[in-house]
């Protein structure tokens, strides 16, 4: 049995008239699973694909930078693309999962392939010329330093009791 999955981006897809009733049904069932369980039907059938299409991402802001940390277990550095274009950071990549099981009287192979793309709008305070990305132990860290001017303009406001 060979299963190949391909999903690009997390945006809703518009259905054309030619897509047919089956595509609409498939989309609705997938949406129901997403709403009910927070994941796709495929991730329940093949647990090793969980997180393939939308890596968990944390965004942390400090005084000097914004850090984006994305969990990408099983994805090699070479399969990850990080870019900044017109104030939008895009992290994209591809994961390939292959599971093989051989016995004396059987040979079972499952394959799944998935693409992901995540775009994040950046504030004007980010110095896009100094962005750095590192990948270690399945975790991608993107550091977006703030401009000197942005750091100087930060003003602490005292909160008083009314």
Description:
- The protein is α+β, with helices and mostly antiparallel strands.
- The chain has one domain: Sandwich (Immunoglobulin-like), CATH 2.60.40.790.
- The chain is 18% helix and 37% strand.
- The protein has helices at 20-37, 41-45, 148-153, and strands at 57-61, 65-71, 80-85, 88-102, 107-121, 132-136, 139-145.
- The strands form 2 sheets. Strands 1-2-7-6 form a 4-stranded antiparallel β-sheet, with no helix packed on it. Strands 3-4-5 form a 3-stranded antiparallel β-sheet, with no helix packed on it.
- A hairpin with a 4-residue loop joins strand 4 (88-102) and strand 5 (107-121).
- The radius of gyration is 21 Å and the shape is elongated.
- The termini are far apart.
- Residues 1-19 and 48-52 have low confidence and may be disordered.
Summarize the entry for a quick read.
This protein has 162 residues and is α+β, with helices and mostly antiparallel strands.
Can you tell me the CATH class?
A: Mainly Beta
User: DSSP helix count?
Assistant: 3
The CATH topology corresponds to Immunoglobulin-like
- Could you give the order of the helices and strands? HHEEEEEEEH
Alpha carbon gap, first and last residue: 69 Å
* Sheet with the most strands, sense and barrel status: 4 strands, antiparallel
Overall average pLDDT = 76
Q: Which band does the percent of strand residues land in? A: 35-45%
Q: What is the correct CATH architecture? A: Sandwich
Helix content: 10-25%
Beta strands, count: 7
Query: How does the helix and strand content classify structurally?
Result: alpha+beta
| Number of structural domains | 1
Runs in which pLDDT lies below 50 for 5 or more consecutive residues are 1-19, 48-52
Q: Order of strands in the sheet with the most strands?
A: 1-2-7-6
Question: What's the gyration radius in Å?
Answer: 21 Å
Shape: elongated
């Amino acid at each position: 049995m060979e299963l190949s999955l391909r999903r690009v981006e997390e945006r809703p897809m518009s259905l054309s008239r030619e897509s047919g009733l089956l595509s609409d049904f498939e989309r609705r069932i997938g949406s129901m699973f997403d709403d009910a369980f927070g994941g796709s039907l495929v991730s329940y059938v093949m647990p090793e694909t969980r997180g393939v299409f939308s890596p968990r991402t944390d965004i942390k802001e400090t005084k000097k930078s914004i850090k984006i940390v994305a969990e990408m277990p099983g994805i090699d550095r070479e399969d990850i693309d990080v870019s900044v274009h017109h104030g939008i950071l895009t992290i994209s990549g591809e994961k390939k999962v292959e599971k093989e099981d051989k016995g004396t009287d059987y040979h079972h192979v499952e394959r799944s392939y998935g693409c992901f793309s995540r775009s994040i709008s950046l504030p004007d305070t980010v110095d896009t010329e100094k962005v750095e990305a590192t990948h270690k132990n399945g975790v991608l860290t993107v550091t977006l330093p703030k401009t000197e001017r942005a750091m100087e303009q930060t003003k602490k406001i005292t909160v008083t009791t009314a």
